[in-house]
Amino acid sequence: MTVVPLAPVRRWISRTQSSHRERGATLSSLYIGVLTIAIIGGMLHRQVAAIFWPSAPDTSALAAGSLTAVCYGLLYLALRRFGPLALSRPAASWLLPAPVSRRRLLLPSLRLTGLVAAVIGGLATLAVVGHAAPRAEAGDEVALLITGGALVGLVLLLIATAAQAGRGWGDMLDRLAGLIFAAGLAGLVTATTLDRAPAVDRWPPVSTLLPVVGAVALVVVIAFALVVRGLAATPSDRILEASRTAGTLFDTAFGIEPSFLTDMIERRYWARRRLRSTRLFPRLPVLVAQDLLLALRRRSRLLWLVLAAALPLLLGSAPGWVLGAAVLLGLLIAGMTATGNVKTDAGNPVLLRMLGLSSRDAVLQRLWVPGVLAGLWAALALTALDLLGDLSSGPWWALGVALGPVGAAAAVHRARVGFVRNELLPLDTPMGTLSTGPLVNAVMGPDLLLLGIPAWIAIARGELTPTMLLVQAVIAVAGARIYLSGTTGDDRTELSN
Amino acid sequence: MVDHPAVEVDGLHVGYGSTPVLVGVSLTVPVGGGICVTGENGIGKSTLLRCVSGLQQPDEGTIRVFGGDPGATPEFWRAVVTTVEPPTWYPGLTAREHAELVCRAHGQDPEEAGVDEALERFGLGGHADAIPPQLSSGQKQRLVLAVALLRPSSLLILDEPEQRLDREGRADVARLLADYVAGGGSLLMASHDDAFAAASGAAVTTMESISSVTP
């Protein structure tokens, strides 16, 4: 088969595209991009410094190791989720089936993701070192560690690239990375519960670091050459899937519409699953049975939810109001794990019409499973905080259960939001123009967490009285009931708010 | 309900912008009877069905379904089934579970309603465990029809139900629709296939014959 040289094709595409743009449009975009980064950097430089290099080391060796596992585990999972090799949608449509060199076609994608992985790997190491290493003069050590971190980022990219072209072992590695990430989170939680965790008291010597970093660099160079050599063997379907992901990401960013991405992830998840039909639990109302079946079919998600109940422990030393806000936010997220069917019905009521149920009946039934999940999650999280002494003793588990209706109403409200309304008028503020559509969309759902204000106050003060518990229970149930009667009707099927 | 026709359309006008699609359309579907509207693409068959389903507001004219306004009420949708809109599917639910869900929502026992037999009859017995997005377009069409015929209803509004079905599938669906009408159900559908329409027990009419002026 004749192979057409790719470079002239790309030059022609680039030339043709730029002829349709205004003169200086690219330079203008570049200028705005750099200016935006400079302004945000100028505004947030203190916070950025506190994240990467606080004035004094503030974490233990266990926390540093755990943070490393979290950062690199997450980097690998992100690389796998987004490809890592991808083409733009036009290139996937027009150049992938063309008789051009597949290796040359994919090389720019590998270069770009390599740069991103190395930068993120280096930054992760800088943050870990900044939080854990002693403040002694150690320029060479820092430079070597950051270089090592960047190389680890590249190693993860190369493994992810091989997994993209490989078969089942890629899924096994994904599970391993998920376990490393979970172990890192568990380590972080453990580190916050230890009173006197051992700290890192000295730098590793350059004489040790240099050969290790050098060896990793050599491995990276050899592995990079091997991966580039095998690039052409990457199956087209994997590249097409990654390209669709990249395109959806672009749509999500451009339209400020996160549901494009979440819907795509949901579709792909179910497309990979092999299901066996089962009877919907006959003793439960039909939509409750459906939600329960869906929740049980995503057991790994439920497991993550149980593990995530330990995450508020990370904020044990933070101000009480931050801890209270984190618990309420977790409540919303826990409820949202079971609102996939509400999103389907809110987006298109075809099935609700087929079911012949009123919006009130439907929403009432749809509140149950999110409510139980949210209540159990909050009960677990508050019990953990209680047991580890971050809260004074009291029936905190009962407060968690009482928060269930709040989590249910907030999660169902969030699922009924629909698309971002970009036609809403923007607001002029001293900081610049603010788009109101994404803002309104973002607060719908979290706004109902205001029903949990009594719990927020109790967590912030660290004290729970029976009166406060009763007040929270009444407000939660009454609030959910008012939400139901105020946003649904017995005379309509549509779920839109 | 028996005192009124199933569907009564009078002087219906619908246009998209300055383009008239339906001009003075009048039509009556008796209870226990079937009407099939035929005509070329773009003549307004689907628009007529959407208006009768209450999914689109006409510019002028009246539409009565069992003597009342077509609407979004649960009572309306318990009596009427339509396939005018492209279907959506619940995530993580198999084809069989979709059928069972609809049956249970209408108070039917899935076994007694014959979910498995219906899937078998529509050639979906081997795909009961598939999630609907994995099915071909013809299989999805058959699943929609299977679910529409499983649940209780008084009026079926079907937009080209023969589409994406093979010859054998068309004959089966036509027979089921004829049984539905014979059992007292009412049927309003649009089709390109006169033989299918005749086999389904529906009286065939054209868009031209029910319009006062051809747009």
From TrEMBL, chain A:
The record's annotation in InterPro entries points to: DUF6297 (IPR046264)
Q: Which UniProt keywords apply?
A: Membrane, Transmembrane, Transmembrane helix
UniProt KW Transmembrane helix keyword: yes
UniProt key word Membrane: yes
Q: List residues traversing the bilayer.
A: 30-53, 59-79, 112-130, 142-163, 175-194, 206-228, 302-318, 324-342, 363-384, 396-417
> What name has this protein been given in UniProt?
ABC transporter permease
Query: Organism, per UniProt?
Result: Paractinoplanes ovalisporus
Automatic annotation (TrEMBL), chain B:
**GO molecular function annotation:** ATP binding
- Where the record annotates domain ABC transporter, the positions are 7-213
Q: Which SMART domains match?
A: AAA (SM00382)
Q: Which UniProt keywords apply?
A: ATP-binding, Nucleotide-binding, Transport
Which superkingdom? Bacteria
Q: Name one Pfam family in it.
A: ABC_tran
Please verify whether the record's keywords include ATP-binding. yes
The Swiss-Prot or TrEMBL record describes its family as follows:
Belongs to the ABC transporter superfamily.
Name-wise, this protein is: ABC transporter ATP-binding protein
Q: Which organism is it from?
A: Paractinoplanes ovalisporus
